[in-house]
Specification:
alpha/beta, 2-enoyl-CoA Hydratase, Chain A, domain 1, six-stranded mixed sheet, three-stranded mixed sheet, 9 helices, globular
């Protein structure tokens, strides 16, 4: 099991830490597997009453480690790999404990989307959110777009997805993507204080409050993930994606046909 993501439990609070700072905590398949194993373990720990998810170093996570794409060491089709990823991260919803994400630096791509599936996000002033998938010839496929659409509306989420532009922390706060923006040196202390407050509440009340909130959000997110699974699988085999890769490799302008 990789040490580039790990979990520590201190009383009623668990802290998951992305620890791959040289790559801004970018995820590869090994880190994904470790994260999913951590979530499986936390589901079996009723004594954990709140979870913090943070990044060591400069960023929460810059998303997928693009240098690791295509190096997966297990025999899975693209479709099955996506199904495994969806099932793995949906374990966030199976926890009894709310999850607070401490966003800072780059919070990008699939990692941004995973943060959106958690309960609460707090951002340091230096946080930069981005969905750059289209610049890599693919689409967002982790369910976060459905959450963003509910938060920001169709126009803003379309801008973020189709242009790949950066959303700064203050804009994220204005749209409700994060609930608080704090100085970078206060981020860890702020989320720890929030976790302690939640852990001190009656456990059954916390569980039921989360269920009420989840019933409003989850159906749309699950439907979005089902669409993403189908469309990303198709896209991976499309002529345009093959042309995207060929043009990159040959250092030329791509000639897309829309097929």
């Amino acid at each position: 099991m990789t040490q580039r993501i790990h979990c520590e439990i201190d009383g009623p609070i668990a802290t998951i830490t992305n620890d791959n700072d040289p790559k801004h905590n970018a995820f590869d398949d090994e880190m994904d597997a470790a994260l999913f194993e951590i979530l499986r373990d936390l589901k079996q720990r009723p004594e954990v009453r709140a979870v913090i998810w943070r990044g060591e170093g400069r960023s929460f996570s810059s998303g997928r480690d693009v240098s690791a794409i295509g190096t997966i060491k297990v025999e899975l089709s693209h479709h099955e790999l996506m199904r495994r990823g969806h099932r793995g991260i949906q374990q966030l919803w199976d926890l009894d404990a709310p999850v607070i994400v401490a966003c800072k630096g780059w919070t990008m791509g699939g990692s941004f989307q995973r943060a959106l599936l958690a309960d609460i996000r707090v951002a340091a002033h230096d946080t930069r959110f981005r969905l750059p998938e289209l610049t890599h010839g693919v689409i967002p496929d982790t369910g976060g777009v459905a959450v963003l659409a509910q938060m920001c509306g169709h126009g803003v989420v379309s801008d973020l997805v189709l242009t790949g532009r950066v959303m700064e922390a203050d804009e994220a706060y204005a749209h409700g993507v994060v609930s608080r923006v704090v100085p970078a040196d206060q981020l860890d202390a702020t989320v720890r204080s929030m976790a302690e407050e939640i852990a001190a509440r009656p456990a059954v009340a916390v569980k039921l409050a989360r269920k009420v909130l989840a019933h409003q959000l989850r159906p749309a997110v699950r439907a979005s993930m089902d669409d993403e699974l189908i469309y990303q699988t198709f896209l991976n085999r499309s002529d345009d994606f093959a042309e995207f890769k060929a043009a990159r490799a040959e250092d030329r302008a791509p000639r897309y046909t829309g097929s």
